[in-house]
Each structure stands twice: as C-alpha cells, then as structure tokens.
Amino acid sequence: MTDLSQPAAAERPAFTHAQVRSIIIGVLLAILMGALDQTIISVALPVLSAELGGFAWLAWVVSGYLVAVAVITPIYGKLGDLYGRRLMLSVSIGIFLAASVVCALSTSMAMLVIGRVLQGIGGGGLISISQGIIADVVSPRERGRYQGYVSGTYAVASVAGPLLGGLLTHYLSWRWVFWINLPLGLAAFLVSRRALATLSPPRVERRIDYLGALLLSVGLTALLVGITRIGQGVSWDETRNLALFGGALAVLAVFLRQQALAAEPILPLYLFRIPTVVLCCGILFIAFAQVVSLSVLIPLRLQMLTGSGADGAALQLVPLTLAIPLGAYTGGQLMARTGRFRPLQRIGAAIVPFGIAGLGLLGPERYLLGGVLMVAIGVGIGLQFPTALVAVQSAVARRDIGVATATAAFSRSLGAAISVAVLTAMLLSALQASAPDLAGTVGGGEMMKDLVGGALARLSGDERLRVAAAVSQSFSHIFFISAALSCFSFLFAWRLPDTVLAGPGGH
C-alpha cells in the first residue's frame, strides 16, 4: 500500500539523539501534569463537597475541566502550527498553574468550578501541543517508540490520578490535589523551554481563523454542557437542554460552513476525508472513554458497596494503572520494529470488550480475578493509544501535523467528557429503577452521595442485602453497555489500511 507518511517525513528536520531525548523529557513532564488533573480529583469529591458545600455543583468539578479541554484542544493545535509549539506550550503551562492556585484557594464550589474550567483551558494545550512536538522531531516509524513512552506517561497519570488524589486527600487535604501542580508545572516549564529552543518557529506567516475558533468554542460548550446536565440527572427534553442542543447544532452548522470558506481553518475539513484519520479518531474516542469511565466506575462501585475509603478504592485501580503503560510501551516498540499499526490495533480492540464484560460479572470483592481482567483491559487499551495517534500523524502532510494531533487529542477529550456524563446518567437511572425505596427519599445525585457515605451500613440486614444487590446489578448493566461500546473499536480497527510507516525500523 502507498506510504501515507512520506510527505511529512520528507520535510522533517534532523535532530540528534541527545536533542530528541531532551525534548522528550520536557514534553513528558507537561503531559504528566495535564493528564493527572483529569482524574486526580475523582476520589476527593465527597470530602471536597462536604467542606465547601453545594453538592449540586459537584459534577461540574470534573466535567468543567473535561469540557474546557475538549473545546480548546483543536484551537491549540492550530495555534501551535501558526505561532510555534514552544510558545504555545509555555502559555498553556502558565494558564494551568494560575488556575491551580485558584482551585487550591477556593472558598466555594462556584469558585472551584471556575478554577477547573481555567485549568481545562490550560490543560488542553499541555497534551495536544506536547504530542505535536513528538511529530516534529522524529520520523513516522520512530514515533511509535517515543509515543509509547508518551502514552505510557499519559495513561499512568490518567489512571493513577485517583490513587494519588485519594492519598493526598486522606493524609493531607483535598487542596493538595491542586498544590502538587506547582512543582510539577515549574519543572515542566523550565525543562521544556530549554529543550524546545532547538525547534525552529514557523517560517510562513498565516492568518488564524478567529471566527471559526469562536464558533467552535460556543457550539461545543453548549453541546457538552447539555450532555453534562443529562449526566447530573436532568431530563434530555428539559427546556434548557433542548435550547442548548438546538443552539449547539445551529452554531456548529455555521462553524462547518466557515471552515469550508476560511483560508486557514481551525479544523480543516479535508482531514476527515482521510479514512485513517476518521477511524483512528473513533478508536481514540472509545479507548479514552473507557479509561476515564473505568477510573470512575471501579472505585465508585467499591465505595458504594463496601464503604471503602478514598485511598482503598483508588488502590483497586493499580492493575489497570500498570497495564496501560505496559500495553502502550509494547505497542510503540512493536510498531517501531515492524512499521505497522493495524495488527496491534486489532489485537488491542479484541481484548477490551471481554475484559470489561468480565468486570460486570464480578463483584468488587473479587480482587484477584478482577485484577487479572483489569490487566487485560489495560494492555488492550494501551496497544491502541500510540498506534492510533501515530497513524493519524502519518496520514497528513507536515503542515497539518499540529492540527491533526490536536484533532486526535480532541477525540479523546470528547470521549472522556461525553462518557462521564452519559454513564453517570445511565447509572443514576439504573440505581433509581433497581432501588426505588432508597431513590424515593433522595434525588439521584444525593443517592450516590449517601451510598458512598456508608448508607448501606445503616440499613437493616435484609434491606441492606436487597439494596446491595440492586446497586451491584446497576453497575453490571453499565459495564455491559461499556463493553458493547468497545466493540465498535474492533470494527474501526478492522477497516484500517495496512500502511507501512516511513523511517528507519528499530532505532
């Protein structure tokens, strides 16, 4: 098959091994910081809400960050192409650190949510810009090796976030979930500024599509806010939700028209005429939706059914935490040696549905077998991360690598934002249907809060068994739905072209 990556590879400037290593260290630090904040706060939410009050705002502490990341990521990709990735990475780190201080000093839930949205605006650049930098400095086949390290760091941070957040909350304070960003961010800023000095800035002056950026931001924000409200228990046909969805569709339709007319569109529509880009973005959407969903559902199920604390619930994620980077590293190494990504995608996509369905059949107390299944899931998802991203980068011309990388990152962020909202809404519905007595006394969100707070332990023996069975069944249904969703990844992987990547193999 024709090598899609040759045009981009031909324009790639040469870098020494020492320069590449220095650049990789800088971007890994930035990715570590940005990825941690997507999940580190999840197990601290009950403690945080008790101190600040305003439980109705709680979902927005997570969703506000994810929505902001999803909206801003494509814009960062284009800005990096236009003004240089070194400058834009520094800007995103600065915004992220300032927002972290706002979060750590929050005296109300409203202030915390504002800080989290600002964090998302900074965090959207940390990952997309960093991954675009990798494509600037190595050949397509070599990207598999380095994206294995990058994806491993990102996966560890994403899934280890609840573990670290639980320990910080338990032994220090939930505010340390944000204070920890300051030393990480300072190190990332200093190292990346120095390492990326070797990257030459863009030589061609191009205009940015400000109208397109505004339309995309408004349209996606309205869409994701509506989806998130559904995740909080609001009916999809509620008047405000209908207005949000209607407005989102109208604005996004105008955005698509604007992208067709703009000289330098924020999101070039011709990218979506490339089958590899479309299929791999779909794979990344589903894969990252699974990572974020599992990192929320697994600890939540343990807390609700056993009364385990934040630290104990987070520890249950350790097998998944270790397996995802193992799969990402293995996939990157094999892709670097063979130059092919399709076989790895198919293997990873075939493993995941069976592992997730297995979790749905097990109770949270089956630690050993559950751990084995989480390892299988983690390896399967890990195989998909670097291979899909490198496939996207290799399918486009060099001038579009930044925006293509950001589009792939946008797909992951969108998967995270939508999956959390949709699965939360489905879980609330399942809980209310299977435990009507408990649901009748409190709202959906308050019901989950009470169960995490040990409501089962306060019930009488027979009632406790009945409610526990209902809660367990509700989680099983969600895991089965998640497993069914992951089957689409296999269908996408099956249709991928069998491209051989350009560049030296193995080095």
Write a brief caption for the model.
The protein is mainly alpha-helical and 507 residues long. It is 78% helix and 0% strand.
Description:
The structure is a single chain. The protein is mainly α. Helices cover 78% and strands 0% of the residues. It contains 20 helices and no strands. α5 (85-104) runs antiparallel to α9 (181-195), α15 runs antiparallel to α16 and α16 (367-394) packs antiparallel against α17. The protein is globular and about 70 Å long. The two termini are 23 Å apart. The model is unreliable at 1-12 (pLDDT under 50).
Write the layout of secondary structure elements.
Blueprint: H1 6-10, H2 17-39, H3 45-52, H4 58-83, H5 85-104, H6 109-137, H7 140-171, H8 176-179, H9 181-195, H10 210-231, H11 239-261, H12 275-306, H13 310-315, H14 318-338, H15 342-361, H16 367-394, H17 401-434, H18 436-439, H19 444-452, H20 461-494
Helix pairs in contact: 2-6, 2-7, 2-9, 4-5, 4-6, 4-10, 4-17, 5-6, 5-9, 6-17, 7-12, 7-14, 7-16, 10-11, 10-17, 12-16, 12-17, 12-19, 12-20, 14-16, 15-16, 15-20, 16-17, 17-19, 17-20
Summarize the biggest pleated sheet: none
Distance between the termini: 23 Å
Spell out the helices and strands N to C: HHHHHHHHHHHHHHHHHHHH
Q: What do the pLDDT scores average to? A: 76
Low-confidence stretches: 1-12
Radius of gyration: 22 Å
**What is the helix tally?**
20
Percentage of helical residues?
Answer: over 70%
Question: Beta-strand level of the residues, as a percent range?
Answer: under 5%
Overall geometry comes to globular
Query: How does the helix and strand content classify structurally?
Result: mainly alpha
Number of strands: 0
